Amino acid sequence: MLKSASGSLINVLKRSIIPAVRTSAAIPVRWSHDGPVESDEEFDNRYEAFFNRKDIDGWEIRQGMNDLCGMDLVPDPKIIRAALHACRRVNDYALAVRFIEACKNKCGPKVNEIYPYIIQEIKPTLTELGIETPEELGYDKPELALESVYDV
Rounded to two decimals, what is the model's pTM? Predict the structure, then answer.
């Protein structure tokens, strides 16, 4: 009993000697980006230069592609071409195919309008590098849609 009473007394004395610091519960602050606005052309040039670096490695390529996939945009064909060249420089064929597939997914509901344009623009690069599209590899259909080997 004495122990609990002495503990209470010490707490009361501490509060009376040391003034309490009051903090405001909420400070309304608007966190906005007031920096320079990057134009579309500058954005495209920045990512194209990023993928065209000669010393780029697989991790950095994935990081750049992940950044692009996280944005609310479909990459310009010149960015896609630079990324495909970067994939071939590090000899990562699967990453190149998956990036094309990710670009297709970024087209959203306008996939029938945007994706054929992208393929048309990057087709010479695909031919030059020997990369096939996901459709040519059969990745656009689920595996169960394939014909059974017993029916052949």
Answer: 0.71
